[in-house]
């Protein structure tokens, strides 16, 4: 049985809590958040606290708080020589206080608190400083049905950067499409089959091969018409930037 103390109560921590609670070989010893009210509804199923000095002993401490607060929080932990891992894709393992044994437990997925997610589909990228701590973090990932991948810092940070393009920027494109559609009462639901097919297609062919559209075909008149149609300058700039990027990739000047 792996005992875990979970620190934080945001999107990732909430999903991890649910996954850890369901896992046969994991027990959540305690759940900490600086704001008690975010976890108070779990009081009947797990020991909760908003006081770092009351943290109990566990095999692993998972820090799932905002990137900028990881370093300070690791410093504020009132113990040493225990295994502490953060869940960030970009924060260096060395940013955490060295009084503890350090690790990273980065789930490469997008988490929103109130959206269901199948954890068995989530790759967990693991980083450690001392090799002997790898097994415990790997076992924890596997206990919740995930595949664990040992990575080094630059790999994890590059994956996170790529993930920003794949997820955050793509999602912003959905948002802009939603906004543009609203100008002519276009129902965003009509775009959903296209949106799903875009993601499905790259499961089988490369993004290079999957590209279609006016920029790839170099249909200049259509591009001109689109630019005339777009109302917001900001959207125009994004359209031009991405059109030029696609043209360059596909050999048009
Ligand atoms: N969301 C994702 O899709 C995703 C995916 C992979 C990895 N991650 C990583 O997972 C970590 C958590 O992300 P998240 O999306 O779950 O964040 P989130 O939903 O914004 O939650 C942030 C958590 O950090 C706590 N917090 C913020 N500032 C703090 C401080 N100064 N001291 C102590 N606690 C503080 C918040 O406490 P309060 O409730 O008191 O505000 C909250 O529990 C980040 O390192 C992120 O990079 C996120």
Structure description:
The chain is an alpha/beta fold. The chain has two domains: 2-151, 3-Layer(aba) Sandwich (Rossmann fold), CATH 3.40.50.720; 157-249, Orthogonal Bundle (N-(1-d-carboxylethyl)-l-norvaline Dehydrogenase, domain 2), CATH 1.10.1040.20. It has nine helices and eight strands. The protein has an eight-stranded mixed sheet with strand order 3-2-1-4-5-6-7-8, with helices on both faces. The structure holds NADP nicotinamide-adenine-dinucleotide phosphate (NAP). Residues 8-13, 33-35, 38, 64-67, 69, 73, 87-89, 106-107, 110-111 line the site of NADP nicotinamide-adenine-dinucleotide phosphate.
Topology:
Blueprint: E1 2-7, H1 11-22, E2 26-32, E3 48-49, E4 60-63, H2 70-76, E5 83-86, E6 101-107, E7 123-128, H3 134-143, E8 147-150, H4 153-182, H5 192-201, H6 207-210, H7 214-217, H8 220-229, H9 233-249
Parallel strand pairs: 1-2, 1-4, 2-3, 4-5, 5-6, 7-8
Antiparallel strand pairs: 6-7
């Amino acid at each position: 049985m792996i005992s875990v103390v979970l620190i934080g109560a945001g999107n990732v921590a909430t999903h991890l809590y649910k996954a850890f609670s369901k896992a046969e070989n994991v027990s959540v010893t305690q759940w900490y958040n600086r704001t008690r009210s975010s976890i108070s509804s779990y009081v009947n199923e797990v020991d909760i606290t908003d006081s770092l000095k009351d943290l109990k002993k566990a095999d692993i401490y998972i820090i799932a708080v905002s990137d900028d607060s990881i370093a300070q929080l690791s410093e504020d932990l009132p113990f040493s020589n225990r295994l502490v891992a953060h869940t960030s894709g970009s924060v260096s393992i060395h940013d955490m206080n060295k009084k503890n044994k350090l690790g990273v437990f980065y789930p490469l997925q997008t988490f929103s608190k109130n959206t269901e997610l199948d954890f068995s589909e989530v790759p967990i990228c693991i980083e450690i400083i001392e090799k002997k701590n790898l097994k415990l973090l790997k076992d924890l990932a596997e206990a919740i049905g995930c595949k664990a991948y040992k990575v080094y810092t630059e790999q994890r940070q590059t994956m996170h950067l790529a993930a920003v393009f794949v997820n955050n920027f793509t999602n912003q494109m959905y948002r802009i499409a939603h906004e543009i559609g609203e100008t002519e009462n276009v129902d965003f639901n009509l775009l959903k089959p296209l949106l799903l097919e875009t993601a499905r297609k790259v499961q089988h062919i490369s993004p290079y091969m999957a590209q279609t559209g006016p920029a790839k075909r170099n249909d200049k008149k259509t591009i001109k018409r689109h630019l005339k149609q777009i109302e917001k300058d900001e959207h125009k700039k994004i359209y031009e930037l991405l059109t030029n990027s696609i043209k360059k990739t596909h050999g048009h000047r």
